Amino acid sequence: MRMVDLIEKKRDGGELSTEEIQFIIDGYTEGTIPDYQVSALTMAIFFQGMSEQERANLTMSMVESGDQIDLSDINGIKVDKHSTGGVGDTTTLVLGPLVAAVGVPVAKMSGRGLGHTGGTIDKLEAVDGFHVEIEKEDFIRLVNENKIAVIGQSGNLTPADKKLYALRDVTATVNSIPLIASSIMSKKIAAGADAIVLDVKTGAGAFMKSLEDSRELASAMVSIGNNVGRKTMAVISDMSQPLGYMIGNALEVKEAIDTLKGEGPEDLTELCLTLGSHMVYLAEQASTLSEAREMLIKAMNDGSALKAFKVFLESQGGNGSLVDQPEKLPQAKYKIDLPAKEAGFVSEIVADEVGTAAMLLGAGRATKESIIDLAVGLELKKKIGDEVMKGEALVTIYSNQEDIEEVKQKLYENISVTKEKVSAPTLIHEEITL
Ligand code: URA
Ligand code: CA
């Protein structure tokens, strides 16, 4: 096989076979096929697309390029959730304990990463003593005992994807649905999930800004998952404004605690119940979605969801009493309200820019070396559609610096208030199954 012939085939709209895709991914991972040939191929894919079969093959070749996590010693169907990324997205913190409380095994491998706030592990580390440096055997044992554990990223998962993603980043080929879908799915599958629930965000703060693009990405991932033997479904949810009220690490832990008690923000609660119901259903812990939802609501109301969170934190060295005394989480020195300049209705909260404001306070990492300030962040006091009086707080800023003019400026630029009444955006746009 010669790489040049495969590039030509794809350039002219042909379909690559299983063996051809395997040849490309193996050669690229090993370094026998150079970047410039793979660049040409990704550009050809960008214009010609990929068939369903090609997408499944590309995904599995990337899965097989590195280590795969073996979760077979964990009892039950392991369902993983993946979000395409948003701002102040506290769902993972809530969903883990929530579905664990009704018997779904949650075996999560998580990283830190860059972003507006830290990743799930950073947020959990706001809980004094909590750590994810645990042995694989302990991880498996904890999931079997408590139904939930989180371990830090280790091993060499999907090296082909790492290389390909970095190459796409500098060759203007990130934005290709088949390449994005196989990239995301390869990582989930290598991490050992039996079934996958996808939360595909749509709107200003999301990777996919239009509903049409979000739907296409969601369908692509759902097809790949099911074609390679993992039950997969997707929810398309709104990210035209941040989810919930809190954006920050300790702040989101507090928000997660409230939500696990059934006292959280309406949008965050609804999204967790929707995604959670699908997880419970795919894990075969309920025979219908409505039964699954009832189980989750009950777990919020009878304290078992919160208890699962406490047990989980303590099982990994954390101070579980924080669950009952969230005021003991790291606290910022200053709490500063951002007053509305005019009365009216909130019409826009540009999610990614507001996320950047949280990052400027120190809540997230701009570079891999940045150190996160767990205490700082933002609390939205108003969401889209809410009425606000002149001088009333739009946001409370939790800061450890006194001078936050830049943050205030950014927030004013990205939160709009109009005279006309505005309705709140739809939260759940669509659910996509095969
Ligand atoms: N996220 C990924 O993991 N891969 C992509 O290709 C795009 C977004
Ligand atoms: Ca939030």
Automatic annotation (TrEMBL):
Signal peptide: none annotated. Residues 345-418 form the Pyrimidine nucleoside phosphorylase C-terminal domain. It comes from the Bacteria. InterPro entries: Glycosyl_Trfase_fam3, Glycosyl_Trfase_fam3_N_dom, Glycosyl_Trfase_fam3_N_dom_sf, Nuc_phospho_transferase, PYNP-like_C_sf, PYNP_C, Pyrmidine_PPas_bac/euk, Pyrmidine_PPase_CS. Gene3D superfamilies: Nucleoside phosphorylase/phosphoribosyltransferase catalytic domain (3.40.1030.10), Pyrimidine nucleoside phosphorylase-like, C-terminal domain (3.90.1170.30), Transferase, Pyrimidine Nucleoside Phosphorylase, Chain C (1.20.970.10). The keyword Metal-binding does not apply. Keywords: Glycosyltransferase, Transferase. It catalyses: 2'-deoxyuridine + phosphate = 2-deoxy-alpha-D-ribose 1-phosphate + uracil; uridine + phosphate = alpha-D-ribose 1-phosphate + uracil; thymidine + phosphate = 2-deoxy-alpha-D-ribose 1-phosphate + thymine. PROSITE patterns: THYMID_PHOSPHORYLASE. Its EC number is 2.4.2.2. Its cofactor is K(+). It is an enzyme of class 2 (transferase). GO terms for molecular function: pyrimidine-nucleoside phosphorylase activity. The keyword Glycoprotein does not apply. Catalyzes phosphorolysis of the pyrimidine nucleosides uridine, thymidine and 2'-deoxyuridine with the formation of the corresponding pyrimidine base and ribose-1-phosphate. Homodimer. Belongs to the thymidine/pyrimidine-nucleoside phosphorylase family. This is Pyrimidine-nucleoside phosphorylase. It comes from Bacillus spongiae. The lineage of its organism: Bacteria, Bacillati, Bacillota, Bacilli, Bacillales.
